[in-house]
Amino acid sequence: MLMTITEVADLLRTTPGAARTTLDNLKLCPVNLGQGRGKGLRWYRSEILTALDDSRKSTTPKKRPPKTTSPFSGKSMSQLMEELTSPQMSQ
User: Fold this and answer.
1) Does this model's pTM top 0.90?
2) 3 neighbors 11 (Cβ within 8 angstroms)
3) CB burial class (10 A; 0-12, 13-18, 19+) of residue 26?
4) For the chain, how many helices (H) and strands (E)?
5) How confident is the model over 42-88, as pLDDT tens digits?
């Protein structure tokens, strides 16, 4: 089924300008029905829905950089106090 830009905007729940930008970002090519009343550019509904699904699937969550290890991690409070009060630290 071919859709006009206003029908695509209704489908995406946005304005026609934003819908056109979205279609351009998805790299969807319109079908040109020519000049004249009731003609113009149209897009296939199935291509729009497929492209939207593919764009959602292709986004992967960003991986966080590994945390830097702290000299305090994994140690109890008593171990930390021993290290801080040891004779080597007071020099």
Assistant:
1) no
2) yes
3) middle
4) 4, 3
5) 999 999 999 998 888 766 677 777 776 777 777 888 888 888 888 77
